[in-house]
Amino acid sequence: MDFSYALTPFLAWLVAGGLKFVVNSLRAGKLAFGLIGYGGLPSNHSAIVSSTGALIAFKEGLAHPAFGVAVTLAFIVMLDASSLRRQVGKHAQAINTLVAHSPERPPLRERMGHTPLEITAGIAVGISVAAAVHGLPTWLAVQS
């Protein structure tokens, strides 16, 4: 069994999340534990799905059917992150403005979705992680 297919998306999530924490902390001027979540640079979702697609491309080739499935999944995830989830964030912002004077209602999370730059950064992280994993020794591939 080849564990690199399980390891790669996990590492992409870890690297993207770590980078996002650093970027948010630098922007905030303090440790940004409160900014962990949806949105931000780089996109964790884009890093995860692009790492899987890139690893399949590196190991199996672009003509492999699994690569086509991975690209399809990646497009769905990235379109969702850039359109639907960004709209949800905008709606949350508008709702928070409308109910700002309501003490019994906690504010909704407004940081949702990603900009094209955040998605592109996530893709770069995912491909980089996949390339690094692909270059690791073959001990990740346990022969049965």
From TrEMBL:
<feature type="transmembrane region" description="Helical">
    <location>
        <begin position="35"/>
        <end position="56"/>
    </location>
</feature>
<keyword id="KW-0812">Transmembrane</keyword>
<dbReference type="InterPro" id="IPR003832">
    <property type="entry name" value="DUF212"/>
</dbReference>
<protein>
    <recommendedName>
        <fullName>Divergent PAP2 family protein</fullName>
    </recommendedName>
</protein>
<feature type="transmembrane region" description="Helical">
    <location>
        <begin position="119"/>
        <end position="142"/>
    </location>
</feature>
<dbReference type="Pfam" id="PF02681">
    <property type="entry name" value="DUF212"/>
</dbReference>
<keyword id="KW-0472">Membrane</keyword>
<feature type="transmembrane region" description="Helical">
    <location>
        <begin position="6"/>
        <end position="23"/>
    </location>
</feature>
<keyword id="KW-1133">Transmembrane helix</keyword>
<feature type="transmembrane region" description="Helical">
    <location>
        <begin position="62"/>
        <end position="81"/>
    </location>
</feature>
